[in-house]
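Name: Acetolactate synthase-1/2/3 large subunit
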Amino acid sequence: MSTQDDTPMNGAESLVKTLLDSGLDTCFTNPGTSEMHFVAALDHVPGMRSILVLQEDVATGAADGYFRMAGKPACTLLHLGPGLANGLSNLHNAKKAGSGVVNIVGEHAVSHIELDAPLTSDIEGIARPVSHWVHTSLSATDVGADAAKAVHAANVAPGQVATLMLPSDTAWNDGGKVAAPLAATPRPSYDQDALEIAIAALSGPDSLLLLGGAALDEQTLETAGRIAAKTGCKLLCEWANSKLERGAGRVIINRVPYPIDQALEALAPFKRIVLVGARAPIGFFAYPGKPAILTAPGTDIIELCQTSQDIAGALDALCTGADAQNTAPAKVAQSVVPDKPNGPLDPDGIASVLSRVIPENAIVVDEAITTGRAFFPVTAGAPRHTWLNNCGGSIGYGLPVSIGAAVACPDRKVLALVGDGSAMYTIQALWTLAREQLDVTIVIFANRVYKILRGELTNVGVTNAGPKAMDMLSLDQPTLKFVEMAQSMGVEATQVTDCEALELAIETGLATKGPYLIEAVL
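Structure predicted for Acetolactate synthase-1/2/3 large subunit:
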């Protein structure tokens, strides 16, 4: 129901009403003085769920997770340039994931900016590298229309980051007007000129259909499975995916490996690669003496559909062109329950535990870094679930994204798999999980080191690392105590050191209403 009316209102009230009319009803907030009229408007205008966080990178990460699971944007409320700057890391991740986010950032009153007060900064300059759309409202009468434009920008496929600056006088001045929602922008078509080339390219095991974005939904994966069964091509997806549907009864798709040597080996057999919602494979970093382009020399790359285009239409056209509509899809996962593992925790044992305990319709948020590389093959036959990856590579994404996923899907269990180093970037998220009583079970893999960086030290050619270098990659002295940290923020927690205890602890967490943290010491 529309909230539009002729009641006199200030700019902040018109902002909240316009956001609600545009379908945006959730805000992750860490406000300051310049945002107080927005905060007050939340009382005057019913309908907006406002969730307090203790650090802005939690707010932006939660908005990322919300969009991935709700399919619509949430907004953040951030305090001036420094507040926005605190949230940049997870805005970077959201942008790379194609998540729609509307950032509302307070700004000094226009008359105050020229005084160069301590918190004055170039907010638009801070916002641009992590935003697709940036704008500053100039008056209370503009705020509603600007908010409608921000939501429209955030909804452009696959999803965009929109950042709207709200000077405090535009929030408190009267004259606010509610703006009507703007019509959605449809996804543009795939490259129809490339269709026949793509159909011809997918023939035999030396051809690859590489998927990303919306190609990883259940229905689109089934279509890809039909194409693979008919043509004999192989299926892979990108290493990092914003949302991947997995589990028994669904088409199995493995990822291009993250380690560069493994990726080169995995992609070496392919002479032709068709891209649907994916980019041509490149290395995460440059390494001495190793190629940045991961495909074999001479590989023919056909880009049929970008992630912003009509991915479902592209796969349907490929399926029709290959005459695969009535072909049973290849590689459908069968339900598999591994034997119960025992003994000390290691990646293979943890993978078996996960396959045994992932519940039907769960959401798995994966920031397990090095520990998690072994999880995919073993969990393919677990009950149906959704898997979320970090698409931007900036760590500290897992706990905030879990907040957003749980808010978007309160009827689904969320299982967050997080490395200890990553967890410390946004550990404040535990407080919000407890405050909102969100149904999230968290497993912190505590190996007491930045293990991925120890591997990267070798990858970049360093062979003579001494004690000072190794000390920079350790997480002991003192040892982090996640159980105590969680309990101090209102989250029930336990520590485990073996596979049997881990399985029991995850089962306990999943049966607990509200957040539950497990420190898994490797």
